[in-house]
Amino acid sequence: MNCLLCQQPFSQNLTLADLLYWRPLLVERICAHCQRRLQVITTACPECGRTQTSPQLCRDCQRWLKKQPQQLHNQALFVYNAVLQDFFKRYKSLGDYRLHAAFTADCQRWFKHHPADIYIPIPTDAASYARRGFNPVVGLYADCVSLTPCLKKQPQPVKQAHKSRQARLRTPQLFTFVGTKTTLHNKKVLLLDDIYTTGRTMRHAQACLKTAVPDCQLQTFTLAR
Ligand SMILES: [Zn+2]
Ligand SMILES: [Zn+2]
Model confidence over 45-79: pLDDT tens digits? Predict the structure, then answer.
């Protein structure tokens, strides 16, 4: 098959363990060369998931938590480097849905080691959905875990990417809860998004869910940070 990032043909190397245990094979869609260009986050800020040399709160999060003690516990898989910026440009801005499976194997491995009861994708607003034809977050994770969509996003007059950081932080609540509250009671819930930038989207979604179902245990996950 061809690598979804560089389009070069490659074949997946099977490990001895794959052959010995006949376990379900995770299909790699990224070649070894592109895998090496990705930066996996190993040590991170416990609040936003930013890569760091020590697992302490980063300065942004220290400042944020002083103002508003609402903790997120975001975990992210990869640093949002040039490879991922190029990937998201093609996947989200140009709307190339074929790329949705690029990180399925990496995410499946991550979810296996960090299981939750309920996985909630961050929704797209109706205008973005109509323009792109798919929800990029659902595309990334639907083949990895069973998703429980229960948030609705309000229409946004100005695209987030075009706003300044200050303008993004001031945005009023973006979401409304449209799910069944009883399915989330006392459950370990993982909120899923594609990229963590300021954390504002996640904090809005978290606040909305916590108001609807105060006793759910909430953490967040993004592919990139
Ligand atoms: Zn490649
Ligand atoms: Zn942080």
Answer: 999 999 999 999 999 999 989 988 888 899 999 99
3-state class (DSSP) for residue 71? coil
Of the ligands numbered here, which is closest to the C-alpha atom of 36?
1
60 and 31 in a common domain? no
- Centre of ligand 1 from the C-alpha of residue 17, in Å: 24
**Domain range spanning residue 150?**
41-224
Cα-to-centroid distance, 53 and ligand 2 (Å): 12
**32 lies in the same domain as 65:** no
**Domain containing residue 49: CATH number:** 3.40.50
Do residues 172 and 216 share a domain?
yes
CA of 35 to the centre of ligand 1 (A): 7
In this prediction, residues 174-179 reach a mean pLDDT of: 95
Q: What is the pLDDT of residue 14?
A: 78
**Ligand nearest to the Cα of 102, by number:** 1
- The tally of domains found in the chain comes to 2
Is residue 162 scored above 70 in pLDDT?
no
Q: Tell me the CA–centroid distance for residue 210 and ligand 1, in Å.
A: 40
Measured between alpha carbons, how far is residue 140 from residues 12, 59, 92, 103, 122 in Å? Answer: 20, 30, 11, 7, 11
**CA distance to 68, 107, 143, 167, per residue, from 113 (Å):** 30, 10, 16, 36
